[in-house]
Design a protein that fits this description.
heterodimer, A: mainly alpha, Four Helix Bundle (Hemerythrin (Met), subunit A), two-stranded antiparallel ribbon, 7 helices, 2 strands, 2% strand, B: mainly alpha, Cytochrome C Oxidase, Chain A, globular
């Protein structure tokens, strides 16, 4: 029957997908969820921009932000996306050991990024900037903190998949599960590129707005 | 790989545990309907208490603080616990039936949405029990909702409760997007989908994109209230206008989340009772999509009195007027559908027609608000209250009641009484207009909303008394509905498969439908497929001639009971899609097994939410329950291996 002949599609894993679009349900769900998450981060980033240069007291961004250090952690996170691509490719090809290696590489690189963030948060608190200090502190910590929460979730998810790959339950024929985690991971990475641009590259030189006292340390 | 089970996997289809563990979209739809109807009664009682207070000048029946709690919880309840979940009840019941699927794309996720909704709504209303109900309005304007001005726990319950409910809505929205895009029966192209399914799709997209914005606003307010951050702390430079922007950027799409499902419902009812296809299907669907899109560019008309400046005000005035165009298109589509039809005035039809009339009145006063100087006079008066009740009660609730009368026979197998139904409709319609029409005058005369009383010499007593009488008449209408339900359940007049001479796929199956919905997945050829298969002679009348040639016998015959092999195989393949397996050798229809984990996960999430009111042990307990649900869920195969080993597990 003509109508149903086009209805069964084999995807790249050889799995038969009986869907109207030929995309697996899970993948469509993930894309729709990422669309939802765009609005989530978009609203927080907009809040950050609205409150830019509106803190009444210091420390201001120029007093605490350190572009070189954060560039390193940004580089680490970007490389984790490369590792993610390699991991998926090897798992899809059935090269299990290389795939497992690269999955755990993503986990390690993600964890390094998180350690940088822990260091940075700790350092800022020592410099006198907490989420309660001023609008910059509030918007900075909540935005980057929620991004860090996303990264943490991704690291845990990929650890789970990494052990699955070690045990052989994650294989070429169900690599879709890894692909979903990959979509999520790349998305979180892209969000960081926006955050890095907005908070660090654009705002890092913001000093006390006219009429406000400069920050002299606590 | 499996966790040790504390409970065995449920298999019984009867008793309370079968409801707790169900993943059947029809049962979940029923759970949504019953739960949100109970909240409808709660929200109604809150409204009646306010009407009692306002029926006389200088009344002292209810103190100002309680009045604040009542209007806050009335609005919050009706938006988040009534209209949205009642729409979700219709999504759940109808979408799989209308697109020819055996269930939604993710049945366990669907159950999770319901349980999170239930627990979230209970958490929100728990605030009444502790005597600290939210009191800052359903819009929670900062800094009034900030802890500095609102130190009781009420708004904290509101913030956390709405965040929990938001998770439920987003999960359900994602599920229906995937279901509608991916689970359609062969031949059911997007342009052949029933309009209700279309509006569900547009609504789901709006939910998935708008609710995260509310989540952000709520998280900001929550960390402000609980952990002392500065988002809306005016002492640190926090900006109350930002709250308004973020809230209404969610809030206005939310308005369309409430009304689009109702528009979908009337678009199903009107053609059936006019015995005509929907007039201008493509235009109607496109208008719905256009409303969903334009709904994102009108939010600042809630803020015309803030002082955003002439440029912003003009832009939002224009976009607000422009969105009336696709809305007006729909009204003419509905009128065109009825025009020249052989109309039967059933209860469902009466509700649908009332929807058009009431919604048009509400729409017209809505366009008035688009004019900035006019709006400045109307802001915060009863004129606005009258406007949004005409669209939300006269619109959404009227359509939902119509939908209940229309699909009740399909869901239960017996008819609702038309006699009681028409009494219900008439009393509700009169009561509604008696309550809200006078509020236009009160508003134009300057009576402020959200104020617990008014002075004797304002000349507002009579009008308010009418409004209050109308409120109690509406309550009587709802009571008649409840009587009708019990009366009809006792009478049990059998409905048959197709009591209204319906047009869409849900009327092809038995009433109530079997739990697997379709024994054989239908093959769809037309819009209103069922109608044209019942009445092939009407095809030429409604289609152009070039179509008519394709619509003749051989494919139509597949609708009969004699099913050829190819179709049978196809049905099986479709069913097996639910668990990703491809076991063609197995003759049965595979549906996902029941599961407790959605219930446990939702419970854990709500306990964590409650713990966020800075009660650390509760967070720990909640996290444990949450992880139990999460890990158990991810380890549990969708289908357990059959005892004979015929089906493969994962």
């Amino acid at each position: 029957m003509a109508a149903s002949a086009t209805y069964e599609v084999k995807n790249e894993y050889g799995e038969v997908i009986n869907t109207s679009t030929g995309l697996s349900n899970k993948k469509l769900l993930m894309w729709a969820f990422l669309g939802s998450d765009v609005m989530f981060f978009g609203s927080f980033i907009a809040t950050f921009l609205v409150y830019r240069n509106r803190s009444l007291v210091g420390p201001y961004p120029a007093d605490v932000l350190d572009i070189p250090i954060t560039s390193v952690s940004t580089f680490v996170l970007l490389m984790s996306s490369l590792a993610m691509v390699l991991a998926l490719s090897y798992i899809q090809q059935g090269r299990q050991k290389l795939g497992t290696f690269w999955i755990f590489s993503v986990v390690v690189l993600g964890a390094i990024f998180l350690l940088f963030q822990v260091y940075e948060f700790n350092h800022f608190v020592h410099l006198g900037l907490t989420p309660r200090t001023n609008l910059f502190g509030t918007t900075f910590f909540i935005l980057t903190g929620l991004h860090g929460a996303h990264v943490t979730l991704g690291v845990l998810w990929l650890m789970f998949l990494g052990f699955g790959s070690l045990k052989g339950t994650l294989r070429a024929d169900n690599a879709i599960d890894l692909e979903l985690a990959g979509l999520y991971w790349h998305f979180v990475d892209i969000v960081w590129i926006v955050i890095f641009t907005v908070i660090y590259l654009i705002s890092a030189r913001d000093v006390a707005p006219p009429g406000s006292p400069p920050f002299v340390g606590h | 790989m499996r966790l040790p089970r504390i409970f065995p996997r449920p298999t019984s289809e009867h008793g309370i545990w079968s409801w707790v563990s169900t993943v059947d979209h029809k049962r979940i739809g029923t759970l949504y309907a019953v739960t949100s109807f109970l909240w409808f009664l709660v929200g109604g009682v809150e409204a009646l208490l306010m009407r009692l207070q306002l029926s006389q000048a200088d009344s002292t029946l209810i103190d100002p603080e309680t009045f604040n709690q009542l209007f806050t919880m009335h609005g919050t309840t009706m938006v988040f616990l009534v209209v949205m979940p009642l729409s979700a009840a219709f999504f759940n019941w109808l979408v799989p039936l209308q697109i020819g699927a055996r269930d939604v794309a993710f049945p366990r996720l669907n159950a999770l949405s319901y349980w999170i909704f239930l627990f979230g709504s209970l958490f929100l209303n728990f605030s009444w029990v502790v005597g600290d109900a939210p009191n800052g309005g359903w819009f929670g304007y900062a800094p009034n909702s900030h802890v500095a001005y609102n130190p009781t726990d009420g708004m904290t319950y509101w913030v956390i409760g709405l965040n929990i409910l938001g998770v439920a809505s987003i999960a359900a929205g994602l599920n229906f997007i995937v279901t509608i895009l991916n689970m359609r029966a062969p031949g059911m192209t997007l342009t052949k989908m029933p309009v209700f399914t279309w509006m569900t799709f547009v609504t789901s997209v709006l939910i998935v994109l708008a609710l995260p914005v509310l989540t952000v606003a709520l998280i900001q307010l929550q960390v402000d209230r609980l952990y002392g951050t500065n988002f809306y702390n005016s002492a640190a430079g926090g900006d109350p206008v930002l709250w308004q922007h973020v809230f209404w950027l969610f809030g206005h799409p939310e308005v369309y989340i409430l009304i689009l499902p109702a528009m979908g419902i009337v678009s199903e009812i009107l053609p059936v009772f006019s015995r005509k296809p929907l007039f201008g299907y493509s235009f109607l669907v496109f208008a719905g999509v256009a409303i969903g899109f334009m709904g994102w560019f009108v939010w600042s008309h809630h803020m015309f009195t803030v002082g955003l400046g002439p440029a912003a005000n003009s832009a939002f005035a224009i976009s607000t007027m422009a969105i009336a165009i696709p809305t007006g298109v729909k009204i003419f589509n509905w009128l065109g559908t009825m025009w020249g039809g052989s109309i039967r005035f059933s209860t469902a039809m009466l509700f649908a027609i009332s929807f058009i009339a009431m919604f048009t009145i509400g729409g017209l006063s809505g366009v008035m608000h688009a004019s900035v100087p006019t709006d400045a006079q109307q802001q915060d008066t009863y004129f606005v209250v009258a406007h949004f009740h005409y669209v939300l009660f006269g619109g959404a609730i009227m359509a939902i009641f119509g939908g209940i009368y229309f699909w009740w026979p399909k869901a239960t197998g017996y008819m609702l009484s038309e006699g009681w139904g028409k009494a219900n409709w008439l009393i509700m319609l009169i009561g509604f207009n008696l309550q809200f029409a006078p509020q236009h005058w009160l508003g134009l005369d300057g009576m402020p909303r959200r104020v617990f009383t008014y002075a004797e010499n304002m000349g507002w007593e009579n009008t308010n008394m009418y409004a209050s009488a109308g409120g109690f008449l509406m309550a009587l209408g709802v009571l008649l509905f409840i009587i009708n339900v019990f009366y009809s359940a006792r009478k049990r007049v059998p409905a048959g498969d197709d009591p209204w001479d319906g047009r869409t796929l849900e009327w092809t199956m038995s009433s109530p439908p079997p739990h697997y919905n379709f024994a054989t997945i239908p093959v769809v050829e037309h819009r209103d497929d069922f109608w044209f298969k019942k009445y092939p002679e009407t095809i030429a009348e409604y289609y152009h001639d070039d179509h008519a040639g394709e619509l003749t016998a051989p494919s139509g015959a597949q609708f009969d009971d004699d099913v050829d092999m190819a179709e049978d195989e196809h049905a099986e393949a479709h069913a097996s899609d639910h668990h990703g397996d491809d076991d063609h050798g197995h003759g049965d229809i595979h549906l996902p097994d029941m599961s407790y984990y959605p219930f446990i996960l939702a419970l854990g999430l709500t306990i964590v939410g409650a713990g966020l009111m800075t009660i650390i042990p509760v967070i720990i307990i909640g996290t444990i329950v949450l992880l139990w649900g999460l890990i158990g869920w991810s380890m549990e195969p969708v289908n357990d291996p059959a005892p004979d080993g015929a089906a493969h597990g994962h």
